[in-house]
């Protein structure tokens, strides 16, 4: 069988969908795909571009499984622009003149950001808003200008549509003040009606964004430094600016198609039929560049549908474009906006039912048929929670009184809706309620992650996830399946439930806990969990009572076990600030015990290769000199990393080292569901990389910004802003509560980032609880943390003072003087390391442990 | 019960007093060149298995966490968390790993007697 070669011009989201769908459906390998992408990276989630400013790295915008690009039948060329298409020879020419032959060509070139011809649009400081490189450049500019000007940057966004508001949100999150300049009479005039636009304007102005509607921008003028300096408006008004973003719409990238002689639509775009084919049967066009049913569509959902159709047609299918669902739901600057169906009531005889509450900034409108039963469309501003339920109901009769869907919760009884199987739930990926039910019932998908992976529902914009979850739970309930969050075979409770149970019952030992709430003897999963809960609740020594046996060996011996069974020892170095005497002591100990030393990622020093029976002697020397345990072994606070801050640094605006030391001393020894790392930076340059930490504190000229939920590790996440410009005592209060709330409610081994993402209502809800105290938990959390701080004692010192616990640090119960005879080391770069199996077999072992020890 | 002197068989060795063992906390003993991990459980029973962890090659089993799977008392390796039966040494949970080359996944189990307050291990008495 010969393979047909498909060339895709364009490396955007729709090109990705096409490639993914083709590889998934073409199980016989009939087609090979070559993707020509102009951008220097694999296709990414352009819809989520703005999240780049809330701390997501470009890599996190990655679409789907990156393994797609490793598929032997897929070739991705980045940085490769197609310059010409020769339809006769079926050849695409790329930059540099290379020719790529195709059997079938798919044009997925998308759009470019369009700006009206405006004098000064080429000045430094004027940006577009389309690609990762655009937003990265914008970010760089704003940060640089802020540092250079020493005051907040003044930004303006030209264009008050969806993208314009996204850009304004981006400027806000970069700390710039922003003005939205809109030529039309209201914001988002393509999606919302006048009432909705009015509500949106009020809500957005409340966020500190200035809105100017009915305003034409005549000219952009340079300032004295040659950078962008001011905007001149049609009415003669003027405004000072340091940065300008154009978000005035997009135009299809149809120049390649035009040069190849393909027909273009009246307003641009490559004309295609309902099968996404151009007049040339060997050329398809999909996504924003395609002019389908007379228009170009700028949303991802119809683009994905076109990609699926093109794939289906190649495989011999007969699917056709069903017409676009232009429904949209967005969160712009924290404001919910949704528009779906016939939002402008253009259907003859359509009725509009409106609820508006200017005080709370809510506007909701339903468009109904003239008998007020069938839903035609709607606009929701300020509260779009009904969107997920309503959008799939377009064209169907709403049960009960339709007013129930727009009036405040509880004022009118809502009819129960059971979506028909063919109702679309996820419009981005065209997933129906029936497919979700099928995933649950026929494919055993019993959690949201499995349903998402199986159906792709909710994997693009995510706005349908609440509905997906609801449909899934209803199906599970019908099938009598209970979703288990049991800790292990010994406890049917989750960690958070167990935490509460132990707290309420005030039990203090594992035997009591398992007797009251569990069964059996426990295991390596529940024992450390209970040990951690008891330590968090009662602040006693980690080895007190029957707790030593609960702990992993690391916590049990208060050091980190390495691969050969020896341990590493890390004394605490608060904030990374260390006395020369302590540096010398650590070096001395390492020499005397023959330990391997390495600087850790947390600004301290690790000594490797200490045997169990050597630990007390090592600790004694550290403790005698005033050092203490660094808890490098615990599911607890590890370190607070800091930059040198305003005391030495030319740029620092606050004393970051002082803050880091205060935080480290405050939270040292705090037991938690997983390890905790903090960071403090003395200025916005962020040298301490604090946003990669569970809690990051970054100095501002007015105080501190506190970021939460950052993690490194397997799935890195940047921390997100919790509070801004707060003084020292507020930093402590907010972090006290955040950490305590996390400790109480997180799952076993769940770090702050996934906890925060999965928490109902996300970070916004957590902020309400820990900052605004919406649950009235504040005092209790404060008191709990205060108790922790009061009861702290150094774990090493406590063991050194306890002869019974010291017994545990024995190599052999019948031969306490004998070290483990199986340990073997070799020398490498002047230090020792464990010998490999081969080195042992070859007799290359240079150092045996018993010959090493040189006591001073 | 007839007291059998620990010296009656060359394979039997007294390792420590029963009172030296803390419930649920293991200790290691060195018998010639064999390392044994000994556990006293909450019910008073004493178990002994090889101290060598077959999945890491380190002698660390005595420092694992005791527990149960169903009715079987268990010990979990402190390195890669495999779980073994304390009754017959069977590896119950491999954590999708293979033992180190040349090692069996299951642990050797040694006979333990408590006599006169002394814990005695019989290296020959493998179960």
Q: Could you name the key traits of this structure?
A:
heterodimer; A: 856 residues; alpha/beta; FAD/NAD(P)-binding domain; Enolase-like, domain 1; 5 domains; five-stranded parallel beta sheet; B: 127 residues; mainly beta; six-stranded antiparallel beta sheet; four-stranded antiparallel beta sheet; 0% helix; globular
Q: Poorly predicted ranges of chain B (pLDDT <50, ≥5 residues)?
A: 1-8
Regions with little confidence, pLDDT below 50 for 5+ residues of chain A: 850-856
Determine the N-to-C terminus distance of chain A: 78 Å
**End-to-end Cα distance of chain B:** 22 Å
Beta-strand percent range of chain A: 15-25%
CATH fold-level name of the largest domain in chain A: FAD/NAD(P)-binding domain
* Helix run count of chain A: 24
Largest sheet composition of chain A: 5 strands, parallel
Radius of gyration of chain B, CA atoms, in whole angstroms: 14 Å
Q: Report the total helices of chain B.
A: 0
CATH superfamily of the domain at 23-109 in chain B: Rieske [2Fe-2S] iron-sulphur domain
The largest sheet of chain B, given as strand count, sense and whether it forms a barrel, is:
6 strands, antiparallel
CATH-level-4 superfamily name of the largest domain in chain A: FAD/NAD(P)-binding domain
CATH class descriptor of the domain at 23-109 in chain B: Mainly Beta
Helix content of chain A: 25-40%
- Estimated helix fraction of chain B: under 10%
- The structural domain count of chain A equals 5
Biggest interface pair, residues each?
Answer: A-B, 39 and 43 residues
Radius of gyration of chain A: 31 Å
The appropriate CATH architecture of the domain at 23-109 in chain B is 3-layer Sandwich
